[in-house]
UniProtKB/TrEMBL annotation:
Keywords recorded for this protein, A-Z: Hydrolase, Protease
Residues of the signal peptide: none
InterPro entries noted in UniProt: Chloro_Bact_Ser_Proteases, PDZ, PDZ_sf, Peptidase_S1_PA, Peptidase_S1C
Entry superkingdom: Bacteria
A molecular function GO annotation: serine-type endopeptidase activity
The organism's taxonomic lineage, starting at the top: Bacteria, Pseudomonadati, Pseudomonadota, Betaproteobacteria, Burkholderiales
Domain PDZ: 200-272
Taxonomic source organism: Caballeronia ptereochthonis
The protein's name: 2-alkenal reductase
GO biological process: proteolysis
UniProt key word Lipid biosynthesis: no
One Pfam assignment: Trypsin_2
Amino acid sequence: MGITSSGANPLLDLSDNLAGIVERVGQSVVAVHGRHRIPSSGVIWRHGVVVTAAHTIRREDGIEVTLPEGRTVTAVLAGRDTGTDLAALKLDGVDLDPVECGDARSLKPGHLVLAVARADGFGAGADFGVIGSTGGPWRTWRGGQVDAFVRLDGGLHPGFSGAALADVRGQVMGICTSALARGAGMLIPGMTVERVTGELLANGRVSRGYLGVGTQQVTLLDAWIKEMNLPSSRGLLINSLAPGGPAEQAGVLIGDVLIELDGRPCSDMDDVHMALASASIGQQLKIASIRGGQRHECSVTVSERPQRNSCR
């Protein structure tokens, strides 16, 4: 026996609602051809501006965007930020409505969401799932500041990096990426997208402080802690130096154990990132380290972090 009234079938109502969200949000989702083979997705974030996942853009020129209507146009790379995995593209002569944004901080584990992509040539595609976990502001392994931690409950399908993530009201919470966590899709919240996009459009990049050091956390000897009256039992062993970088120029050596930066204890990379976030390019920071069992101090001039460098 068939059901003729959708009101008597809540599953049908839910299904129709989700399909409507995909159709509506999909009008502001494009396919981005910035790498070989499978395109990624992108979102019309501002009039004439597409935002996508930076790791999917493998070339500077020759980038194309396929619009919801099926037309393919040339896009100009305005800038990219590997720290937050965001790239901004400019479209000329394209007037599509930007997505309607919501606040990603309202998401909770278990909330139903839809990733809306356009990457296979057959129109808008969707992936239905739930939010896996959430948290406060966090810093990515590449040094970018993200305004809210939102992990999806699984990985992303090919082409879904750069897709819009919508809640069940149809508001876009941000864009998806597979590059910020191993084995799981992550959300780049709308407020982060907006902030970074503004910087990319204005400057072509996001400037971050840089010391040029690679580190690993180590446990300090009890004798050092007692002799130097250290507040923490942890420090950061310098295990690599960027050639010609600020730290190398300041006389920092591989094997030094960093214990203070800018007069504050430094026991993990969050402490380093915090000091760099508050420092301006060209500012000098005082470094205290342990070298040969003795306290050693020097000053390092903060420079702008190269866009493609794994050192801090």
